[in-house]
Amino acid sequence: MTVKVAAIQFEPTMFRQEENIQALLALCEQAAEQGAKLLVMPEMGVSGYCWQNREEIAPYVDTIPGNTTRRFAALAARYDCYLVLGMPEVDVETGLYYNSAALIGPSGVVGTHRKTHPYISEPKWAANGDKGHAVFETPVGRIAMLICMDIHFIETARLAGVQNADVICHISNWLAERTPAPYWINRAWENDCYLIESNRWGLERGVQFSGGSCVINPDGGIQASTDSGDGIVMGEIILGRGEKAPRVCQRRPEKYLELMNDSYTWNPLDFFNLYQRSPLPAGKVSEIAVGQFTPQHDVQQNLAHIRHLATAAQEKGAEVIVFPEFSLSGPYQGAAQALHLPGAEVTALVQLAVSLKMTLVAGLVEADAGQCFNTAVAVGPAGILGAYRKIHLSEADKTWAIPGDKWVTVDIPCGRMGLLIGEDITFPEAGRILALRGCDLLACPAAMGEPVPGAHPGSEIPHNYPIPCGADKYHWLVPRVRAGENNCYLAWANSYQPGKSLGLSGIFGPDTFAFPRHESLLLDEQGLVTLTMDTSNLDTPYPTNVVRRKDLVAMRQTNGYLPLIKARQEPL
């Protein structure tokens, strides 16, 4: 079943609510006349956004249901459609205000979402949402709603994914970057669902909003979008597409229990030092590197390539270098090719680490007790520091490998490093758990050919320097999003194999909205790149560095995440 949908882009005006409502009704009527059956309007579209306090917004709040929703319900009844409306809500029982989204159908309000993860402005007047993250069954699909900052957190959209949502309706007042934003794209792709994005544009109290309203496909492709100005973005969603992609249906919830932990509620410098058991390594400024090459089935040839790149990285001052998946052993060809830990080949890797005084991370096919694993090993001058067996296997891996069962972190002079491999990065839970364990750096050997990066044609929105407005061939990259959402550095070492894996190795910084981007990217060639990693701290008892402070990790709302650790989430 194909359903026509519409994202409404609109610039509301503060203190002129009636005019805003009339303009939104007119835009919705135009979209409905074009056949749209699901229409999505911006966050706080009826009122404007930048309110200073409860007193200022008080004349513009309404109940849900209430007078405002009834006006949109009349339109929904007239056109037999469903609307998502952003508005300031008052709870009649408590008097609390919320930044809310109402799902409205021909018979009235179907459901409400109250913004759970506030941006800096909401605490001036609104309480955190208390309705969780429901998915609503309608004739036009299973609908989830998120509001702006909610989508920064992997858990909110994942709750929609595990409840088999067809579409996430994300309403926002997004700012400070080109849109469609990488976070929007990532949440659609990683949860294998459509995302209808309704963002505002324009300037309000000195804040420049980004526009870019769009319809995003489950593969991360932008189906339709607009840049600036009021308007309607028409698109289609297909219902009944069958079981979700492996990145959703092959989750391993039994490995995600730590998602319920709030490690950053307390000062992390104190928390990880509790009982003097696992203090974070002292912060410092370091150079880190990734090497990109095509692993062969000749271990000695691979070692020679590793030695060459590691030596070049050391000459550039790097203390850590990460190599691709299977970089030591070559891709799996049979159990006879598998290496042992320890073994002669890994010992040679350790000897290289000793001679260069570096930490090396390499991938290999590992044999242990008659079984094979897809493994990443970290070695340094002290020997084998840790070995991680891939938890989320690819379809090719499953023909020969046993999945791992333990997350692995190691402490090195640069900081705390967590290990991932390839397809692990497609599961947002993986990076999150390592971040919750205090990792500064995620090292991820890979051999992946998708998802391909998403380009951006450029924006006419007048962002202030240094926010970029021009075209960007590499606007959306999954490793970049994973780094930013977890406030970690991420060293992504992807093998370069034309027709099989993309290359595009890189090192990505811990702040998504820091421009110019703090990252190094290697395209379709063999070689290496380096980046400065800073985990240092001013002389204070509390972390002053984002990678140690982890603002986004600290702002999680774990009370709503319980379905993420259940083996199966039954439909509502």
Automatic annotation (TrEMBL):
Annotated CN hydrolase domain residues: 3-239, 286-535
KW Protein transport (keyword) present: no
Keyword Hydrolase: yes
Matching SUPFAM superfamilies: Carbon-nitrogen hydrolase
Keywords from the UniProt entry: Hydrolase
Pfam family name, one: CN_hydrolase
GO molecular function: hydrolase activity, acting on carbon-nitrogen (but not peptide) bonds, in linear amides
Name of protein: Putative amidohydrolase
Species this protein is from: Mangrovibacter plantisponsor
